[in-house]
Here is the input.
Amino acid sequence: MRTRTSWREKLERVQEPKLTPVPPKMQKRFGTGTMLIPKPLDVDAMIRRVPARKLTTLTRLREALAQQAGANVTCPLTAGIFLRIAAETAEEDRERGAKRVTPYWRVVRDDGALIEKFPGGVTEQAKRLQAEGHQIVVGRVTRVRMGDEVLAELQR
Here is the structure.
């Protein structure tokens, strides 16, 4: 009987990035041109570039991946899935004793909302962000408080 595929195996799955025309159903949102279907390791590598005490958004990660590949846009669905795989792999690695893992908790939604699908949910993401000096606003939606300079940086 085969055991469940580990998150590490999912992250390191042999897959090449693919450039494809933007699908017709997505052209209203993204326009025409080329869409990057990234590989999980590319998403993980981009997250690893986010320094301590800094934040990024999945939108910013997607823009950077598209630019790096010469595409107009990165597929939001696969990028979101691969973000989750990177986060779960980081926690799997941490459980195995790794000291340095992918800092997935530094990725927030465009409006600063925390991401509930991360390991431990928004509670764990909030703890990690607070440990790096970020203020968390708990309300109907838990968000990281972003000053004007952070918002300006994320919007660039």
The mean pLDDT is 90. The beta strands are 18-21, 34-37, 56-57, 73-74, 107-108, 135-137, 143-145. The longest strand covers residues 18-21.
